[in-house]
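<given_protein>
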Amino acid sequence: MVNKKLIEVALPLETINKESSREKNIKKGHPSTLHYWWSRKPLATCRAVLFASIVDDPSCYISDINQIKIERKRLFSIIEDLVKWENVNNEKILMKARLEIALSVARANHLNPPSSTNNDEVNQFITEFVPPFFDPFCGGGSIPLEARRLGLYSNGGDLNPVAVLISKGLVEIPPIFSNIEPINPERKKQKEILKGRWQGTLGLANDLRYYIKRVGEKAEKSAAQLYNDLNKKDGTSDSIIAWLWARTVRCPNPACRKIMPLLPSFWLSKNPKRNVWLDAEINEDISFHIKKGIPSETELKRINYGTSFINDKGKKVKATFICPFCGNGIAKGDYINTEANEGRMDFIPLAIVIKGEKGRDYIPFNREHGNRIILETEKYIQINNLESELPNEPCRGTFASNAQGRAYGFKTFSNYFFRRQLVVLTIFNKTMKDIRKEIYDDAINAGMVQESRGFNEGGRGALAYTDVISTYLALAFNRLLNRSSSICVWNTAREEIENTFGRQGMQISWNFAEVNPFSNSSGGWYGSLEWIPNVIENLPPDGKGNIYQLDAADSSLNIKYPIISTDPPYYDNVSYSDLSDYFYIWLRKNIGDIYPDLFSTVLTPKTQEIVVNQHRFNGNLDDAEEHFQTGLAKAFQQIIRNANHSYPVTIYYAFKQTEEELDEVEGIPAISSTGWETMLSSLLSAGFQITGTWPMRTESTKGLKTGNNVLASSILLVCRPRQKNSPMATRREIISSLRRDLPHALKQLQEENISPVDLAQAAIGPGIGIFSGYSKVLESDGSEMTVRTALQLINQELEAYLKKEEGEMDRDTQFLINWFEQFGIGDGPFGSAELLSKAKNTSVSGLVKSGTIVSANGVVSIISRDKYPTDWNPTLDTRLTLWECTQHLIKRLQDNGEKSVAELIGRLGVGKSEDAKNLAYRLYIICERKGWTSESRSYNDLVAAWPDIIKNVSNSMGCGPQKTFDIE
């Protein structure tokens, strides 16, 4: 009999999620800033999950229910301290967590526990008796990093070489080169020396600062003739931050054929403190002047639209532009694509961004200057014979997933870059290889052991240290690389360069920003002087970790019975290998000789990658799905075979993709998700049972696409091997179980303020937990129920739960929900309104008096909330409806922010406000199914902001207890 772990019973979920969300905005020293990676889990979440997966629930060793609650509260307080970013290297708090881990392991194995006052004894106990940790899909390394921070012997694996390298930099390398003095010639001038000894990773970080600077200085000297305009201009000392360019094609109008810029807008800065835009002058050619101030209404329209083609509804048409010369030539996506693929797409200069006295400033950038840059670049390539050194590996082009761009001339990786960008990146790569001898000589001069084995061969001397510094320099180079493509756009609001991967794909940018690689601002090389070393200084210096390149579906690592927590691929959401090729091809040129096995292929491995990519199967979705399910099933079989069964396996999953079908009997919409279905089928077929589920706020909802409703949560599945004597059930029995147990779980999710966009996904967890407890569920015809059917039943019960909540609301609100579902806020016939009002035991005239609808000329419509009065006082409303409360809360949030909403809640009362928030869930579901994205976002935003709103309410009242949640 194994002990039940805390994660299977209870968690301080609100605090964990709050700190996980907060962590997304922390940059300085955060491991995520070492290197870009997609779908990286917050460290706070990983730390809490690992701790709670190893530590026993108090019910295992305490019998009194009141004492169990007291003990859980104590464990919660440890987690609440543990998840705060400020405590990430707080040894006192970390040792509290390690002690609890040691005590649980000692209890389970009948061992003498270590002394609670002896840190060395606790750490030694963990090293000797706690099972090793393993993450077979380690990605960006968050989970194995936090396992090492908790004192575990941490192991991670990934098929992707870029992921392996990032994780090595976070998990494997730092403890090997901890507590060493720096080797660089300036080391004696530094102030971090403590009692003659460099502590932790301070020495390594100090060396990185020095050698990053050295690479920048040498590269800048080599590239000097390419950047003549970096010198002082017009007697000022302002440095250039970026050059702004636009793509061009020839006008398709045969009578014109002039070079037309593809510019979605003319804005340069929409900073509240300064508006700056381009004013186009049309003569024989087009030239741009820079204007500042407050534009007129006529100017504003021209600025917003640029050269975009505007349809009859006044909307921009995607990838379609109009010629500013003739006004008739319209360049559409297919035409532009053809021009690009034939090599006829070109560039035109727009403006130069410089560092001014009060922030960013913009100066002219004319055609002559742009042509000079292009000519100097081509001259440099020819003189230095660089053409063969450019990244001419083929990308997947037209037949690719969107990760590598479907069109517009993307044939090789060189096509992602402006030519000067290619040259300077090549210069940096050559400089980093050349500087290795300097690093090695400095290591020998500093007294480091001379050893012939490099880091990859297990060396620990001067050559190995040179390899390690070179590895981090390569990762620093990739920071520059991420802001050095012609995909990078100039963010006019924040006035900075966006990453190449603002989206999970290589999507063409019509106008782009060419970063100044030698600038200290917005993406330049010298920014890494602090970014990378700050990360290294924040990494745990002790412990042991190993990162391997491996296929999770065919892992043969000799790690005996590890604790496993992992974040497997999400169906077709992220094409990791296609995306990381962008970094891989440069890393291979840079440090491929240091890691020959890791960089043995021209591009990243594709065949074994467990994702749904149709283009790898000639467009056949069925074959791609079969590959995903087979691979994931094998991976889960490996996990259940190798895992230490004294501890649950924890699996993160975040996927939003739905298919709607109509139930044949009840006519209730039954939503199923192919991604979830495939993952869960693989998990259950491997023999797992789900013993707990938690919605973890792990996903970033911010990005370039602000118009989408994006998942904010992963669902954490807590899994154990299914008991061999698990009972069977019938369809009727599983429906009864869902109807009995699921509402309680859904109520908890709402109390936790799970975002409406996440609710359907979060409901899968407890629902499939019920389903997975049976060895099989039989349909009425004796066949075995599929996961797909189970998911549809779960969603039907979610629908029924929300409808039941609706039935408990006031009659006017019930009418408004039903009317909204049929007509939105558009017009509907009076006759239908009259029938519906009678069915809901209300009246059209009464609803008109309530101020929620208007009725005239045989037409009825809901009053939109933007027409609601701003001075509404619910205590004076003689016909108060829950509908009004929800709409007023949203209006307050949109117009005046969270404090204003909190003030209104003070008048409504928390109980009525919670009911209004719950109505937002119901209205969100309606909007999502109708495709009303903007309206659905309003309801989602209200719930997402609720914790901060309630905090404002609590602060004003001087109260606000911490909520915790349990499964029991």
The chain has 28 helices and 29 strands. Residues 1-178+542-558 form one domain. Residues 933-957 form the longest helix (25 residues).
